Amino acid sequence: MKQCSTSLRPLAASALAALLAGPAIAAEGNWRVGRIHYRMVCTACHVETTGESIAPSTRTKAEWTKYLAADQHAANGQANPSLRYYVSQEYRASIKDTNKAAAKFIDMPDEEMFANLAAFVIHGAQDSDTPAGCQ
Predict the structure, then answer these.
(1) How far apart are alpha carbons 131 and 5 in whole angstroms?
(2) Which residues of 76-93 are buried (b: 16+ CB within 10 A; e: fewer)?
(3) In 10 A of CB 16, how many CB atoms?
(4) Full 3-state SS string of 35-87
(5) Residue 51 backbone zone (phi > 0: left; psi -120 to 50: alpha; other: beta)
(6) Domain ranges (residues) in the chain
(7) How far apart are CA 62 and CA 52, in angstroms?
(8) CB under 8 Å to 36, separation ≥6 — which residues?
(9) Which pLDDT does position 123 carry in this prediction?
């Protein structure tokens, strides 16, 4: 088998690192926990307020990464404009009596829950190996 020349190794290594890195925050989270929160909290609220759910497969990994970084949940002003608010302990505490997932994860730190949610939407994005719906 022919080996790469030494001049190509740094380029190949940096390309591989870029491919494997992906969104850093998604790599830090537990997508399975994020799935529970997304389906039981996010989807439940979206269906209740708009009649529609937003599946992770409706956006690409790049689109989800941009959305998560922008931290803009609702531009219309009818809801809290911060996405992070909806994964916060404050929000989970406000719905814990009617939402089992919020009650279950009430003590999870905000950043950990946000990382879990990010991991799930990236894991289930349109261009992932496992596109996810809301059900």
Answers:
(1) 38
(2) eeeeeeebbbbbbbebbe
(3) 10
(4) HHHHHHHHHHHHHHHHCCCCCHHHCCHHHHHHHHHHCCCCCCCCCCCCCHHHH
(5) left
(6) 30-123
(7) 23
(8) 101, 104, 105
(9) 93
- pTM of the predicted model, to two decimals? 0.75
H/E stretch holding 93 reads helix 89-95
Question: Over the stretch 64-112, which tens digit does the pLDDT of each residue have?
Answer: 999 999 998 875 556 678 899 999 999 999 999 999 999 999 999 999 9
For residue 123, which of 131, 134, 115 has the smallest C-alpha distance? 131
Q: Which two tokens stand for residue 53?
A: 């759910």
Q: Taking a C-beta distance cutoff of 8 angstroms, is the pair 89, 108 a contact? A: yes
Bin 22: left if φ > 0, else alpha if -120 < ψ < 50, else beta.
left
